[in-house]
Design goal:
By secondary structure, the protein is mainly α. It has a domain of about 80 residues. It has 5 helices and 3 strands; from the N terminus they run αββααβαα. It has a 3-stranded antiparallel sheet. β1 and β2 form a beta hairpin. α3 packs across α4. The chain is globular and about 50 Å long.
Length: about 120
């Protein structure tokens, strides 16, 4: 039965809705953890795409930016890679970066989850 009163603003703001999600990265030697994008980060993500399409801009480095916003440790503390780290992430194996980026998009509600063969 649904709560007829709805959530209060305090309840919404206090809800812990940012849980770390593991992504296998055997090519890198283990598992990485990511968080969903925040509402503000989703707005920035949308704006990156709009700017690129309207202004003839480039999407180069967009996956690295996604990883920059979402990489965290197993407890959910953001890793906050900056500058040279973000560039180096962009220079890593594209298949691994894509796998992680796709998972971030999925848990952020921006992409349908991948269907495993046989399911």
């Amino acid at each position: 039965m649904a709560d007829e009163k709805g959530l209060t603003l305090s309840q919404m703001l206090e809800a812990d809705d940012m849980q770390p999600v593991p992504v296998d990265a055997p090519e890198w030697g283990g598992t990485v953890y990511v968080l969903p994008l925040t509402g503000t980060q989703r707005d920035m993500w949308d704006q990156l795409g709009i700017n690129a399409s309207q202004k003839g801009g480039s999407l180069a480095g967009i996956r690295s930016k996604l990883l920059q916003w979402s990489l965290c440790d197993a407890k959910g503390s953001r890793l906050n890679p900056t500058g040279e780290h973000v560039k180096k992430l962009g220079d890593k194996n594209g298949a691994v970066v894509e796998r992680i980026a796709c998972r971030v998009l999925e848990i952020s509600g921006l992409k349908e989850p991948e269907k495993n063969e046989g399911s």
